[in-house]
Amino acid sequence: MDQLKITKKNETFLYIETDPGIEMELTEHFCFFVPGYKFMPAYRNKYWDGKIRLFDTRKKTLYVGLYKYLKQFCLERGYEVLTDDSAQYGSVEPEKLPLDFRRAPVLTANQIPITPRDYQLDALEHALQNEKSLLLSPTASGKSLIIYLAARWYIENDSSMKILIIVPTISLVEQMYSDFEDYSSTDEHFHMDEYSHKIHGGIPKGQKLFHRIVISTWQSIYKKPASWFQSYGMVIGDEAHQFKAKSLTAIMEKCTEAKYRIGTTGTLDGTQTHQLVLEGLFGPVHKVTTTKDLIDSDQLAKLDIKMLLLKYKEEHCKEISKLKYQDEIDFIVRYTPRNNFISNLAIDQTGNTLILFNYVEKHGKPLHNILKEKLKGKKRKLFYVSGETDVDTRESVRTITEKEDNAIIVASLGTFSTGINIRNLHNLIFASPSKSQIRVLQSIGRGLRKSNRDTQVFDIADDLHWKAKKNYTLEHAAERIKIYSKEKFDYELFEINI
Questions:
Q1: Cα gap 48→41, rounded to integer Å
Q2: For the segment 182-210, what is each residue's pLDDT rounded down to a tens digit?
Q3: Are residues 348 and 236 in the same domain?
């Protein structure tokens, strides 16, 4: 019988010994085309075939997190699997967890005592029992609390190694640290300044990393040598869907001693390639809960989605039918009647309103200027946030809006669609066309924090079809409708002539 001898090289890689024929089978089995590869320069210039190969034939390694898929590969082909019985490949016996596992530490939110929800404790238990897990939990489900509880459990049960928490932006470093301070504000046994350290833009001069918990952007650490990562026994990747990027996979590959690996994300992009990379780095996907379940159980605000389909004049439709994608986008975001419609829509709403845009110079700033002019002499507050806005200003805007009840925030998708929590948001306007499942769902999550009213989402779509030819952004709108249907969100479609 053909055999595969599998040993655990470290907490990142499995080492596989087998004959060359089976190695070729492994290479082909764990091999996928990258979405959009045909448009990438390396493929066009014939330097690359467009595939990601997860089994390294030279090193004979595969990510530990893909162990279950490797076992399935062997089972389907009748191959015998030989493993080291002493090695842990993906699950811990429940009795190895402390009996007081569900005894949460003293927790607060805004100085008010809180109790973790059952699904948060279930997710935590799953992640710790399996050691490696990719937790799929929607925006506004309390992922930061799960991360905090995981870190606290590790500190109390392993005194020898540190915890690395990786987030994509400086804003999220500050927010994660602030959330941890909030959760532990009345906990006499845990003080953030003693246990935790922030890294973004490098380590301050003279600062030594002696803290057990390190919260960092990936940009600040990805160039550090492998030795720097050896002291971490737990690594947590927030917004884990971004870890398909090469720099981020490199970080995870360096964390060879991190037995506990937890990825958290609100959504995956739906491609098999990216999911297997993420599962390889963190572990198998575990669905924690869904937005629909949280809304139905009254833990999140109810969602009211209105897709506003803007119908353009015939001469514009005819003109756009001849243009390429980017030219169509440029026309749409610069079209004055459209921007006036969006600004008037925002002004007509009551409550805090977030307008999300994609292009700073040609869309975000013009929208902000239109609103600033329309709001002259009125008491309503207006804020603007983009990648150019420093982190302190972004945080202050977030804090201010939590105290306001009728502000308008004009913000770029890059700064406010991912990870930034606004607890007092009532209306959300998608001002830029998008078909990205991740962006759509995470943006919607900005407005789902529980308040005293439903959340309204205004999805601006653009109908510029000419005869039988649909325009690009109309097709994007169709993709967003598919997302709403898949997530079982209620939505209405309104046609508006502009």
A1: 9
A2: 999 988 888 888 888 888 765 554 445 56
A3: no
